[in-house]
Amino acid sequence: MGQFTIEPKAESLDAATSGAFSDQWQYNFQTILGPTNLAFINAELSDQDVADGYTLEYNPNGVLWRVNAAGIPHPDDLDNYGEQLRVIESATNRTLTDLQSLVNPLQVIKGDTEGTRGNSLALTQGAGKAGDEVYLPDSGGINTGISLRQVVQVGIANGILPDPATMESDYKFIEGGLGIGKFVSVAGGLMMDKKGNVYAILDGSVGYGLGPPVTGVVGQGYFGNAEKNNAQHYQEALQGASFGTTTGAGMQGNVSIGTSGVISGEVSFNPSIGKTFGGRYAEYLFNIND
Amino acid sequence: MFAMCRKIVAVIIGSILLCVFTVPVIYRVVNYTEIEQREQNLHSEFQAIVHPEGTKQLKYKMSSKIVMRWINAEYTYTNMSDSEVEKYYNEEMIRQGWIKQPVSEARYNHFHESRYKKGDYEMVFIPDRDAVAIHLHYKDIFDRLGL
Q1: Disulfide engineering: A186 pairs with which of A111, A118, B13, B82, CB 3.0-4.6 Å?
Q2: Does any CB of chain B come closer than 8 Å to the CB of residue A202?
Q3: Is A84 in a helix, a strand, or coil?
């Protein structure tokens, strides 16, 4: 069995964190793998395998597996591959937990130049295929660190924030806003949808009316023109830019359209009166089930 | 002091919103043919999937934002359990050179989703009642920002 190591990308983590991560990951990897787990043993060809047309190739983890002429791996080796992924993932998860305080999530984002979501690490094996990337179990958004996720989870557990499992509207949001001059206002806050996706939102609007220079807004909304079967659908519908108009006094109504044609209707409570036109940008952060 | 801070915050938020709304539009105008090609590439990648025998397609939709393109489809299967379907696609995606992406245990337990990556593409399989939803999208900056 080859020696597995995991090396955080140089631009993602500083040297000290990188070294600590590699050491801890190696320890966790060996612990989780255990002495009797054969998942990372290179496959060998038996006479029967040769007769069946199998040849040896490296799988994406750098371990030899048997593939037939059509490129389909041997079922036993495919099971082993699944086990390899499980061990790698578990070791990575445990290491992230162990070294939580050492990893500055913002450093990781900075190194993420390919638009890939999540932390990327280079995985190498002694005789295997170097340079394969393992993407840590981040479902896809800017990694804001564990603290914000924990804050949201604790908020939900204590009834301070809405629980997606019991949410009746498609999404809810909370914002703080600033009035600039007579006609312009901006706001920023958090939004969470029914499937547990959490977004950072920024609003900007122009219009007329009366209101305090600093406001707090809570609201909820529904959207149409899009599928709503799973978290991916919600993310596709709500993430990104949209335009809309808001009218009301105290309790306000908003209608907006996203760049994918998704139409949303919102009701919010805002200590102001008037009519505005504006835009919103929602950036996906994480899912509370991640 | 408060007025100054307020203006700074407003300028920052305003600048972000301005960029978010204008940069993708400019990119789209300048790279119109490339964006058309993105759709064709997605379609080709999706068509390359070999589904199990007896599979029935319930939905297929190519969706778009300013630059972002993605495909949502849904399939039902005869005489196959969710785990059999998951295993089948696992083998099929690996056979086609896709690499399975680790998903956190909590997320897997909640959504039962499987993710695969190949180059700039990501494919997501999510079981949903009697069907499986398949999402194919690019993994680039426009996808990450939802633009």
Answers
A1: B13
A2: yes
A3: helix
